[in-house]
Design goal:
Number of helices: 5
CATH topology: Glutamine Phosphoribosylpyrophosphate, subunit 1, domain 1
Distance between the termini: 42 Å
CATH architecture: 4-Layer Sandwich
Number of strands: 14
CATH class: Alpha Beta
Order of helices and strands: EEEEEEHEEHEEEEHHEEH
Radius of gyration: 19 Å
Largest sheet: 5 strands, antiparallel
CATH superfamily: Aminohydrolase, N-terminal nucleophile (Ntn) domain
Number of domains: 1
Length: 245
């Protein structure tokens, strides 16, 4: 499994994903779940995937190399779609195609058709958007009321985002909150693991602002982990004891 989170903020996007793939306790591997299509000045599109690795890799390859789409024509790719909405439509169509091809065979082997994708970015002349795609190929979009989306093992990292993230959150605070969310997940779920991939995109820049892989040795991520732990301890200790004791 994995954990990916995307923040859709007024200033831009904060995107974060882990790299662990777990096929049992004896088979744990590292694979990047973040895939970037960047043509500076023209488009930045980022996909982050969770679920069955074979399925997600197939989807990523098809939207990158070309897919014969009913709506966008033959050989459609994310490098050529005119809008982010069309990018989400293309990705959903690819997911459904992969299901029709592999779904029954997987079901016969008792393997669930399990994948989910965060798709984010901006194309020149269009607005920045963030979508979450499901295994049925349908999707939802982040809004000002719900400015973050998650896929994978999201439950441990969700509370801090629910309490703190708004559309007005700055990019720097967004990075901190995304890393705290990831740290909470890392501490509580062994199927999510380091290193993590971080990407920051500033609205209307049409170029990747920051892309970095963070390991256990990264000083800032260690600072986040240590300070957050201490802050939580201080917070609960500062709360008065229950009156019935």
């Amino acid at each position: 499994m994995t954990y990916c989170v995307g923040l859709h903020l007024d200033e831009g996007l904060v995107l974060l994903s882990d790299t662990r793939t777990n096929a049992g306790v004896d088979h744990i591997s590292t694979f990047s779940k973040m895939h970037v299509i960047a043509e500076p000045g023209e488009r930045v599109i980022v996909m982050m995937s969770a679920g069955n690795l074979a399925l997600t890799q197939t989807v990523v390859n098809l939207v990158s190399e070309g897919f014969d789409s009913e709506t966008l024509g033959k050989g459609a790719t994310l490098s050529e779609v005119p809008t982010m909405f069309k990018a989400a439509q293309l990705t959903g169509e690819v997911i459904r195609s992969v299901y029709h091809r592999d779904g029954e065979a997987m079901k016969a082997q008792s393997v669930p058709f399990d994948l989910s994708i965060l798709l984010a970015g901006q194309i020149a002349g269009r607005r920045m958007r963030l979508f979450q795609l499901y295994s049925a190929g349908n999707f939802i979009e982040a809004t000002a009321d719900t400015p973050f989306l998650q896929v994978g093992e999201h439950k441990y990292g969700k509370p801090i985002l629910d309490r703190s993230v708004t559309a007005e959150t700055s990019l720097s605070d967004g990075v901190k909150l995304a890393l705290i969310s990831m740290d909470s997940t890392l501490r509580s779920n062994l199927t999510v693991g380091l290193p993590v991939d971080l990407l920051v995109y500033r609205r209307d820049s049409l170029e990747v602002g920051l892309q970095q892989r963070l390991t256990e040795e990264n000083e800032y991520f260690r600072l986040i982990r240590e300070n957050w732990s201490e802050a939580l301890k201080s917070a609960y200790k500062s709360i008065p004891a229950p009156p019935w004791f």
